[in-house]
Amino acid sequence: MGGFAGPTARAETEGHSQPLETDLAMHDRTGLENIAIAPARPEEAETILELFVDIFHNREPLTAAVGFSRRRMLDLGRSVHLGRGRPALENGLWWMARDASGGGAPAGFAVCNDLLAEIHQEIPPGTTADETERIAAFAALQQELHRPLTERFDFAPGECLHISALGVSPGYQGRGLATRLLAAAVERARDLGFRYATAECTSPASRRCHEKCGFASMHRVWPCEFNFQCKRPFADIKDDCNLMFRELP
Ligand SMILES: CC(C)(COP(=O)(O)OP(=O)(O)OC[C@H]1O[C@@H](n2cnc3c(N)ncnc32)[C@H](O)[C@@H]1OP(=O)(O)O)[C@@H](O)C(=O)NCCC(=O)NCCS
């Protein structure tokens, strides 16, 4: 692992990253006046995990390729996001959007964690051999995507925020809601002393949200070409996967 690169290490600027303030101002046009965005309370964790499954199952490309049942995804979500994510949840790094005009129905979420806590996850009990192999393929792809980060940085706890999952229900998409959830979580992380933030984006829409919040692509991998144990487990994914990164000055 490379030495800590410090504040001079910058992400390669690619695409059309813009200052956060400008982009958020642009998004005031979107009619989100009935949507309340707030840090999730710990007792809302289960609602967020259910929303995560609703939004990601069969939709988010990598999740769809891994192909778990909804029930298994919920188990994994509890283990991966809540297992070591409880301090992040309690510190206001999980955000939720609710629709006041829809009786407070959940509309979107951002789940964030300390990157160091995230990369040491345990596989939940009861995982089958086949599931373990699919999780291993997913983890290997993530490791390849993270390679420039691990080579250039040696993060201390509380230094790099990981955007673990960002989702907006289909009926609310395209109105700037994900961008607002992400911006809120990043601001909170900055207040807590985080100096960097990173995410993996598997779709153009997700990448654009991150660009609007000041992230730039640091590395890119094509899952369809990714080889794992002489197989191509993500052969059907057409989009590239981008490692997004930004400093939190
Ligand atoms: C990705 C996701 C969170 C975006 O939520 P959202 O609330 O619609 O996002 P926003 O409205 O804040 O911004 C979306 C941006 O992407 C753009 N966009 C949407 N589809 C796009 C596409 N196919 N190509 C390029 N840009 C696209 C929108 O135009 C918008 O940018 P703009 O404001 O510059 O016009 C939502 O689509 C989602 O939940 N998808 C399923 C789960 C998922 O993939 N999560 C991300 C995992 S990496």
In short:
Helices cover 39% and strands 20% of the residues. It is of the alpha+beta class and 249 residues long.
Describe this structure in words.
- The protein has 249 residues and is an alpha+beta fold.
- It has a single domain (12-120, 128-247), classed as Aminopeptidase, CATH 3.40.630.30.
- Helix content is 39%, strand content 20%.
- It contains 9 helices and 7 strands; from the N terminus they run H-E-H-H-H-H-E-E-H-H-E-H-E-H-E-E.
- The chain has helices spanning 20-26, 45-56, 61-66, 70-83, 86-90, 115-118, 129-152, 177-191, 204-212, and strands at residues 35-39, 94-99, 105-114, 160-168, 196-201, 216-221, 241-247.
- A 7-stranded mixed beta sheet has the order 1-2-3-4-5-7-6, with helices on both faces.
- The two termini are 24 Å apart.
- Mean pLDDT is 87; it is low at 1-29.
- It binds coenzyme A (COA).
- Residues 55-56, 59-60, 166-168, 173-179, 201-206, 208-209 line the site of coenzyme A (COA).
Helical coverage, percent range = 25-40%
Largest sheet: 7 strands, mixed
Rg to the nearest angstrom? 17 Å
Beta-strand percent range: 15-25%
Q: How many beta strands in the DSSP annotation?
A: 7
Number of helical elements: 9
| CATH topology group | Aminopeptidase
| Name of the CATH homologous superfamily | Gcn5-related N-acetyltransferase (GNAT)
* Number of domains as seen in the coordinates: 1
**Distance between the ends:** 24 Å
Pick out the low-confidence regions: 1-29
State the CATH class: Alpha Beta
Instruction: List the ligand species.
Output: coenzyme A
CATH architecture designation: 3-Layer(aba) Sandwich
Assembly classification:
single chain
Structural class of the helix and strand makeup? alpha+beta
What is the N-to-C succession of helices and strands? HEHHHHEEHHEHEHEE
Shape: globular
User: Order of strands side by side in the largest beta sheet?
Assistant: 1-2-3-4-5-7-6
